[in-house]
UniProtKB/TrEMBL annotation:
It comes from Jiangella asiatica. This is Sigma-70 family RNA polymerase sigma factor.
Amino acid sequence: MKTMPPSIDPHALITDQLNAEWRGLSGRPVPRRWPLAALPGCDTLGDAFDTIAWARRHQPAAADQMLLTLLTLRTENGDDLAGRLVLQALLGRSVNLARRAHRIGSPGLRGDLPQLTAAAVGALWHAIAAYPLLRRPRKVSVNLCMDTLAHFTTVLDDRAPEAVDIALLESAEPVFSVRGPAPALEVLDALSWGIGVRVITPEDASLLLRVYCPSPGHDGGALAVARELGLTPATVRQRCSRAVQRLAAAVRSHRKVWADAA
């Protein structure tokens, strides 16, 4: 399975090359083999990109269905152009992931932003290629972002457990998004670490983000997320609590090992 689009040189400025490539692709007509209902009113690939971008902001469920259709074309039909559109639609998330890793200082790549960006884009392409269509047909955008985070984490050296803030993980209040950007970044660090050491799944991380660190325009909290998922608030709280407990236990265990080895 390929982990990078074959036309991309990993030693080049990958975002510049991808965006330049997309400027050439965006004027192409949407392939006739693609289901027209999945991308309504789209004549070109640029139209499709704009439609997905708008839907991700205003109609997330519709955007997820578009992305799922494209992922299905990529996985079942080997349609790399469909995968390329998904890559472009989520490219900004990879750039943000690389910039965040650069800010906190990645020991594995020594904080080299071009290398971190290439690694993040490669992680996104891997997530696209390996997406489990049948198992996760909903919340596709969030799942892809969390899978990318998990794959990206594997290319970095293990972080010191001290980088994970237990107080944030164990807080009973949803403080992760409403107090400014710093808490959200710390939570993302914690979740990426937890996925990397396999104590939580990307689905667990997605749920915690939706409850405690909702996207702009979305309500957080167990009650709102329970309504979206068709679950009871008690079930959502229980799942969050279990995930947080596993994270906290893993952090304590790693800290003890680290302290004993010091």
